[in-house]
Write a structure and sequence with these properties.
The protein has helices spanning 2-39, 90-98, 120-126, 173-176, 179-183, and strands at 68-76, 81-88, 108-118, 136-149, 160-166, 169-170. The chain is built from five helices and six strands; from the N terminus they run H-E-E-H-E-H-E-E-E-H-H.
Amino acid sequence: MLHSTARALQLSGAFGTCVAVAVCAVYITQSAAQSAKETQPAGGTVASSTNASPIYGVTIPDGYRDWKVISIGRLKTEKINQLRAQLGNDIAVKAYKEGTRPFPDGAIIVALHWNRVPSEDNNRVLAGPFPGAQSFVVGSRVNMQVMVKDSKKYAATGGWGFGDFKDGKPGDETLHKTCFPCHEPAKDRDFVFTRYAP
């Protein structure tokens, strides 16, 4: 009986040691993951020299295609004819809906730009019920732009970090030097041009 009790205590001690080691391993793993998350640049993915914007270190946010639409527009010049959609993470959309300015830290706005092209398929369908109608749709991708609000990190640029990407790769430093000056005319709207579409 005493022998079996001693054996049970040994087993429970070994089991307790295993549990303690497992708990420590989980804690260390979670702490490392949290540290990595806290030190990654704003935008959502871990930065490397190939996927973060120069100057700001902004990356393409994970899951941005599932974000809510802020607005849709068209930009047309002699050389450009684009359709553009602006999406926002939950923080940005909440700020838009509530009229919160300046935007709170953590707000991210993504602008997607495509060439605008006529749709022959849609025009054929519309020809009967809407004679003379012309339909236009998105064509090839032009670029995407990302704005990340972090009032401390980006204090010199109105609290915003910028990223301009083509085919998933950031533009060069010269391009990124133009981002903040371009947004300065919208200073009274916290440097954001896009208005929330009802």
